[in-house]
Amino acid sequence: MSTENISEARRWRLLAAFLIAALTILRIIYLGYFCSFDLAPDEAHYWDWARNLDWSYYSKGPGVAWLIHASLSLFGSLSISLTGSELLAVRLPSVICGTLLLVALYKLTTRIYGNEKLAFLLIALASTLPVISAGSLLMTIDSPFVCAWSWALFFGYKAIFENSRISWLLLGLLVGAGILAKYTMALWFFSVGCFFLFTPTFRYQLGRRGIWIAGLISLLCCLPIFYWNWKNDWVTFKHVAVQAGVPMAQKNTGIRWLGPLEFLGGQLALMIGYWFVAWFAAMIVNRPGKQTDPKKLFLWWMSVPTVALFAGVTFKAAGQINWPVAAYISGMILTVGWLYEQWTSADLRFAKISRFGTYVAASIGLLLTAVVLDSRPYRAAVSPLVKAPTAADPFPIRKFDPTCRLRGWKYLAGEIDQIREELLKSDGAEPTIAGFSWMTPGLVGFFCKNHPSVFTIGPVFGDRHSQYDLWHPNPLADAQVFMGKTFVVVGTGSPDLTKAFDQVTPPRQVIYREDGQPISGWTIWVCRGYRGFDSVILDKSKTTY
Q1: How many other CB atoms are found less than 10 A from the CB of residue 243?
Q2: Does position 458 have pLDDT exceeding 80, yes or no?
Q3: Which chain regions cross the lipid bilayer (predicted)?
Q4: What domain range is 483 assigned to?
Q5: Which of 346, 372, 398 is the last residue of a domain?
Q6: Per the confidence metrics, is the pTM higher than 0.90?
Q7: 491 and 430 housed in the same domain
Q8: Which end of the chain has fewer CB atoms < 10 Å from its terminal CB, N or C?
């Protein structure tokens, strides 16, 4: 593509800066004053990690916990004074990571295409994707991971194509930081290794010091993870292995022949259909052997191998829809670059089709993002389609609104706080709070008054093990510490708690409603006289990772 003149390039650069700054400010304002949903289960789980700092954790590295802890230390008091809770401080790192992601996209696109207008269009279109918007608002591991991946792409490009020695060092630090957030970051080196191996003019890079120094630096960054796992029976590696389909558990012994089709459907949903189809077409057009520009081949190899790898994993494990999300960073640059060429091509018919598809996809993305930000108008619109609640389906609206899982936890915490106060008056001591799922302790602990420590007894009833089983004391591994205590147990279903307690009161049902519709529900038991469970919960042979 032709290089723009200086004044036009400056104009697009200023527009990009304005867009990124405006999005950042609007996201902070939204989270502080207009956000209607509570913490997601993952966010609350990582918040609990952040108040129990360690070198690593059961299922992830320490990166997300360190970020949340730093944000709470710097902005926790400000968040409480402005909004009444620490929620803004918990999510602020995701806003920063989202901003840095867009900056990296812009800089890398201008480096490769020399076109500031294209770079602006790219970040504008990327901002319409719900997955990008969600990653810039919810503080999960994907926010710092995708941010680290995008900047690793930028400095990797500088190291490879501009012979920048310091960029190799920065690349190693970024990949290491990304691994501390999400282990998928290690695939960065796998992808760039494929680029070197299958691009003859760059194969010599495999024998040079740069990439190996970067790899060594990233490995050194992982020492906290290795040290913690060495002290904890390598539990993270076992957990990740089971997730990836390694047959350590009975559920992973067969082949899932329809796995790739499920993966394809998930990716189509994640990328609003059009963007995945456009990505696939761009990958076909720019495939090795047909594309000769090494810069575009770099983008290709940093995208396709990761997507293909996760598609292959689905033969053994169900996986998660967001697993290959980082691969679409370089893929989107190549895709929008290819679409831009179609928009300006001599084939007017195809240009119109591709433009129309882009407009429609961007509009759908903005609409979906608006629904996620405030689903109440959407729920009102679909209410005629929602069946009346029944015993078998007490919350039918959840089939239409996925944000329901982020609602009602503050209300539940208020009900638990009321029970805590009643028990404090009657028994003269604070009760112990526990849940049946590894997702419950963080959510209840965050929203309850004074952030009490909350435990899980879920493994007794079939829930997987988690970080809560490694913290001591806990009611399962250290039952003697909790003997005779009163518990407030939160969950769903009708588990048998009488074997572990002297007295179990009739359950109290808690239903959270919005606009008259039941959104979420829980059951609360007050259990006195803890005796402990008979099951050998921490038997390694019975552990569910």
Answers
A1: 18
A2: yes
A3: 12-33, 88-106, 118-138, 167-198, 210-230, 264-285, 297-315, 321-341, 353-373
A4: 406-542
A5: 372
A6: yes
A7: yes
A8: N
